[in-house]
Amino acid sequence: GIKAKTINDTDFAALRAVFKWGKQRGWLPSNPAEGARIEGRGKTVTREKYFLEDERASILKAALAVQATERENAKTTAAKRWVPCYSPAFAR
Question: Per residue in 34-54, pLDDT tens?
């Protein structure tokens, strides 16, 4: 399995960055990944594995609202729109 340190230092760091980006644009009231960590022993389930319907709707609405900037590569803009759709949390 993957060690807790790896998940905390890579996966959660990426999530924090994406949610921070959404918060900075006013799409999210807070960063839900801020302070997220897992402990190295045992599994702790604190909530459902998947996003709730209202969370899914908010994320998709924000993804559809992404607008290209002059300096941003078109592929980057497209990725920002499509990334949520490929999240395993949406495969419910």
Answer: 988 888 765 556 777 777 888
| φ/ψ (deg, to 5) at 46 | -105, -15
Domain count for the chain: 2
Q: How many CB atoms lie within 10 A of CB 15?
A: 15
Co-location of 34 and 4 in the same domain: yes
Write the CB contacts of 86 (distance below 8 Å, at least 6 apart in sequence). none
The boundaries of the domain holding residue 42 are 1-46
User: Which residues of the chain are under the pLDDT cut of 70?
Assistant: 41-45, 87-92
What's the rounded Cα separation, in Å, for the pair 6 and 12? 9
Predicted local confidence at residue 45, as pLDDT: 62
Do 54 and 88 belong to one domain? yes
